[in-house]
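tl;dr need the bound structure. longer version: we got a ligand (nicotinamide-adenine-dinucleotide) that a collaborator sent over and nobodys looked at where it sits. i said id run it. heres the input, straight from their email, havent touched it
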Amino acid sequence: MNILLTGGTGYIGSHTAVVLSQAGHEVVLLDNFCNSSPSVLERLEKILGKALPCIEADVRETDVVEKVLREYKIDAVIHFAGLKAVSESVANPVLYYANNVQGSISLLQAMQEVDVKTLVFSSSATVYGEPQYLPYDEDHPTKPMNPYGQSKLQVEEILRDLAASDSKWRITSLRYFNPVGAHESGLIGEEPNGIPNNLMPYVVKVASGELPHLNIFGDDYETLDGTGERDYIHVMDLAEGHMAALHFQNVNAGSNVVNLGTGKSSGVLEIVKAFENITGKVIPLQFAPRRAGDLPIYFAQTGLAKEQLHWVAKRNLIEMCESSWKFQELQGHVKGESEN
Ligand code: NAD
Ligand code: UD1
């Protein structure tokens, strides 16, 4: 298949590009580089042994997207392009609705115009909000707690209406849990700008000596060790989940929502221990107050992904930490022991 990846040079998009390209698909990337670097293209070329075409554009440039769909005879689109920082979405909701919702509408307009009607959409477990029960299954009520989550839910709803309006659409919204880790080569991985908000990139920067210590946001939750528990999923498992969704759509029309997680949750201290074991470094810790908007624990019901997509996450916490560390080391950011 010829597959367009919007946001294809970002964290999840670049790993999915590797999986799809190595499976023999023709992959085309489109990105405005607002949260990624063109250097990802060289690194993808190293992994794949060939260059992937990449168009520098915003998904809101409907005519450009339309042209790309025609020119590359695209069969299916995976829509990763979007903004994802929760606190930024609270501070600037218009930015988030403009990019995530307007961006998706623009893409859909282009796809309709060219009659490309197969789409996988990057959604998030954040659409569920406060758990009524756990694990979250796909029928769990949705009540996002911030504009970022709301923007994802709005797009899911647009996609459901679209599929109901025209039986040619094949749409899967994938609700990701907490993606971490990197490609085994260490050439691509997660590269947040500035001080990371998320746990794993923060731990990596403490281990490398770039940040002095990890703040643990809350140690009095009703969880095994008192810290927040999450369903961490290896980004390569997640990438493979997208290919599984495309295969499912080859034989199933309509719209569909599927969780991508492991079904297990880990606490902050468990992550820290695993990381210390792998790197042989001590991660200095400080307990800090709970972070506003954080939930104590959540994880995925994974049955639907297994049944429909024939996909399960295969990689464990060790592989998640090892690959994150390898990526960090290859970036040359690790300070020498003498500097620590
Ligand atoms: P990322 O920021 O690394 O990748 C997103 C890419 O989209 C970036 O390369 C960015 O430059 C590009 N982009 C953003 N807006 C664009 C626009 N208007 N036009 C063109 N390109 C644009 O993020 P990621 O972690 O790879 O996430 C990919 C998708 O998955 C996002 O939609 C995100 O909301 C969703 N998601 C991510 C997570 C996570 O924890 N990483 C969890 C759930 C859902
Ligand atoms: C965050 C987003 C969520 C998004 C997800 C993607 C918020 C409120 N939610 O979720 O919408 O889908 O990222 O992966 O931002 N922690 C620390 N110290 C740190 C960083 C994190 O103790 O420096 C703890 C958190 O309190 C939490 C756990 O680690 O218990 C995971 O945090 P994080 O990686 O930010 O992910 P989420 O909060 O699940």
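gonna send this back to them w/ a short note. The longest strand covers residues 118-124.
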